[in-house]
Amino acid sequence: MIRLEKRPQPSKIWTVMTPVLAVFLTMIIGGVMFAILGKPPLEAIRTIFWDPLFNAQFASYTRPQLLVKAGPLILIAIGLSIGFRAGIWNIGAEGQYIMGAIFGAAAGLAFYPSDSFLIFPLMIMAGAFGGFVWAMIPAILRTAFRTNEILVSLMLVYVAEAVLASVSQNLLRNPEGMGFPGSRNLSQWDASANREIIANSGMHWGVLTAFVAVIFAYVLMTRHIQGFNIRLTGEAPRAARFAGVMPARIVIFCLGLSGMLAGMAGLFEVAGPAGQISIDFNSGYGFTAIIVAFLGRLHPVGILLAGLLMALTYIGGELAQLMLGVPGASIQLFQGMLLFFLLATDVFINFRLRIGQAEAA
Amino acid sequence: MTFTKLLTSAAMAIGLASAAVAGSHAEKTKVGFIYVGPVGDGGWTYEHDQGRKAVVEAYGDKVETVYQENVPEGADAVRAITQMALTGADIIFTTSFGYMDPTIEVAAKFPDVKFEHATGYKRADNVSTYSARFYEGRAIQGHIAGKMTKTNKIGYIASFPIPEVIRGINAAYIHAKKVNPDVEFSIIWAYTWFDPAKEADAARALIENGADVVLQHTDSTAPQAAAAEAGGVITFGQASDMGEYAPMPRVSSIIDNWGPYYVQQVGRVMDGTWESVDTWDGIAPGMVGIGEISDAVPADVKAEALAMKDAIAAGEYHPFTGPLKKQDGSDWLAAGETASDGDLLGMGFYVEGLTGDVPN
Q1: Which residue of B14, B73, B348 is in closest CB contact with A280?
Q2: What is the pLDDT of residues A177-230, one digit of tens each?
C-alpha cells in the first residue's frame, strides 16, 4: 500500500529537487508525445533544451535571444511575486504591460524627431508611471471599496487591449504609415531605441533592469522591514495587523510596484524588440509571468532561473517547429506539462511517500 | 551507465544523424513560411499552407519546406524569421501584414536569402511584396448580395480599418447598389482577423437588425454557423471556400489561391532569376478564386455573376469604374475613368451612399 505521510517540516531537498524532477518527467512524457506524433523524440528534446544553447550553427543568435525573451518575464514576475507573498493577486500584469508601453511610447513620440539623450530616460519613467496608474485602479478600488483585485486587474487587461487598438489607429499612428495601424518604429529612432548595451549579447536595458530587480527583490524580502511586513501579511494577516502593519499600505505598495515593473517591461519591449505600438503588440508576457513567478517559487533567484527556463522552452519550441515540423500546439502542450509536473511533484515538499502498512499511531 | 554518459552518447548519435541529413539537403532549396494563425484556421493561414503544399507537389524532392505557425507580429516575428534564415532557408514567405518591419529588418542581415512579404508596401533588393486583388471578388459578391436581399439590409463584418478592408466594402457596396438602389449596408468593425466568438456575435447582431446577407472580412467560419442557425440568411466564404456551409448559407466565396505564385517564385530562386518585385494579382492569373456559386442563387443571377467574373478576368471591366463620388459628395472618378492602383492601395474613404464613418 502506498500512502502519503505529512512531513513535520517542508523538505529542503525536495524544494530544490522538484523543478529538476519536473523537467525530467516533462522530457520523458513529452518525448512519448513526440514519438506518437511520428517525430524523433530524442532529437525533439535535444532541439528544445540543447540547441538554443549549444548548436554550432545558430546558438550564437539564440543564446542572446534567451535573455531578450526572459527579460520581460523576469521583470514582471518579480513584481508579481512580491504581491503574491502578501496574498495580493495581481492577475492583470498584461494590462499594466500594455499601458506602460503606450505611456512610454507616447512620451517619446511627443518629441519626435528630437535627438535628445533625455528622451529614453523620460520614456522609461513614463512607462513605469503608465503601469503604476493602471495597477492603482484595482489597488484603490480594493482599499476603498473592498473589491476583488483579481477580477478588477484581469478585466482591466481587456480595457487596456481596447486602448491599445485605439491608439495604434489614431493617437499614435505613424503619419507616414499609408493609413495602416501602428506607431512609428521606436527602435529605428536613435533617441528612443532600447539598444543592446553590449552588441550581440541580447543584454538590452530591460534585461539589465530585470537583473537589478532580482537583486532589489532579494534584499527587500530578506533584509528590509517592508519585506517582513509583506510576508507577515501573506502568512498571518491578523498577526500583521497586531504588529501595526497597515493592510491598505501593503496593497498599494505591492500593486504599485508590480504595475511599475510590468509597465517598464512593456516600455523596454516596445522601444526595443517589438519596435512599435501595434494592435497586437502584447503577446502574453503578463500572463506567462504568473507561471514564471510560481515556477520560481516566488523567490527572486528562482524566478530568474524559471524565466530563463521558460524562454528556453519558447525558443527551443520554435526551433523544434522549424527543424522537425512538430505542430505549434504540441509545444504549448509541452510547456503545460512542465507546469503540471511541477505542481504535481510539489506534493513531495510537504509529504513523503510511504510504501507498506501504516504504522499504528 | 551514468546519466551524463547516456546523455552525451545520445547527443552524439543525434549529432551524427543530423550531420548526415545536413549533407544530403545541400542541393535542396529550402523554403520557409511564417504563419500568423494555426494551419487549421480554415481561412487565411490554411490557404497559405495549401500554397506551401503546392510547392512541395510541384518540386518534390528538390525542395524542403518548413513553417512556423501562430507567430505573433512583433518581437517574436523577428526571431522566428531570423531563426528560419539561420537554419538555411533560401526563400522565406512572411504571410501577414504585421511582419513588414520584421521582414525588412531580418532581410538586411541576410542579403543572400530571398524574402516575400504578403500585403505590405516595403521592399528591398531581397524583399518582394505580393498581394491579391480581393476587391474583384467583392464586386461579384456585392452583385449577388444586391440581387438576393429581400430586406435590402446587408451586414458586413469588417476587421481593421485599413485600405484593403475599406476597398472590399466599397467594391461590394457599389455593385449591390447598382442592381438594387434601396440597399443599405451596416458595418461592424470586429478589430480582429480571427476570433470566432466575436465574429459570431457580430453576425448575430447584424441578423437581428434585419440583415439577410452577411459579408465577412474575417477568417473564421463562425459567421457562417450563425447564419445557418438563423436560417434564410446568405453568406460568402472568406479566404478559403468554406464549402461545408454550401449550398446555404454559403452561396459563393473568395478563395485566396497562393499556390501558383509560390511555385513560380520558388522556381525563380532555383534557376537564379529571382528579383524583387511587387505583385498584385487578381482573378485573371488565378490568385483570387471565386468559389462555386451554389444552387441557392437563381440561375440568372448566377449567370450575371459569372459574366462579371469573366469580364474582370479579361480586363474588360474594372470594379471601380466612374462615375463615382466619395461619401462626402465630392467627385472621385469621372464617367468611364477607372481607379488607379495608387488610389486603391491607400483607400481611406467610403464611396457615396455608405453610412457611418471609417473609424479614425
Answers
A1: B73
A2: 776 788 898 888 888 888 888 888 888 999 999 999 999 999 999 999 999 999
Distance (Å, rounded) from C-alpha A138 to C-alpha A149? 5
Regarding whether B125 and B156 lie in a shared domain, the answer is: no
Q: Establish if B356 belongs to a structural domain.
A: no
DSSP designation for B128: E
Which structural domain range is residue A321 located in? Answer: 55-325
Could you tell me if B315 and B183 lie in one domain? yes
Asked if residue A337 and residue A232 are part of one domain, the reply reads no
pLDDT in tens, B115-147: 999 988 889 999 999 999 999 999 999 999 999
Alpha carbons B326 and B280: distance in angstroms, whole number = 24
Same domain as B152, residue B233: yes
Please list, in sequence order, all residues whose beta carbon lies within 8 angstroms of the beta carbon of residue B303, skipping any fewer than 6 positions away: none
Cβ contacts of B10 on chain A, cutoff 8 Å:
42, 46
> B30 with B80, same domain?
yes
For residues A315 and A47, is the Cβ–Cβ distance under 8 A?
no
Pairing label, strands B127-132, B114-118:
parallel
Both A309 and A348 in one domain: the answer is no
- How far apart are the C-alpha atoms of A314 and A185, rounded to whole Å? 25
In a mutagenesis test of the A interface, which of B14, B56, B69, B83 is the best target, namely the one with the most A β-carbons within 10 Å? B83
My answer on whether B123 and B141 are in the same domain is no
Q: Min CA distance, A178 vs chain B (Å)?
A: 6
Cell of B172: 461590394
Residue type, B262: Y
Domain count, chain A: 2
Whether residues A105 and A214 share a domain: the answer is: yes
- Determine the structural domain holding residue B26 and report its residue range: 20-132
Band of pLDDT at residue A358, cut at 50, 70 and 90: low
Give residue B12's pLDDT. Answer: 47
Residue B7 has pLDDT above 50, yes or no: no
Looking at the structure, do residues A347 and A279 belong to the same domain, yes or no?
no
A114 and A206: one domain? yes
Residues ≥6 apart with Cβ < 8 Å to A82: A217, A220, A221, A230, A254, A257, A258
Question: B66 vs chain A: nearest CA distance in angstroms?
Answer: 6
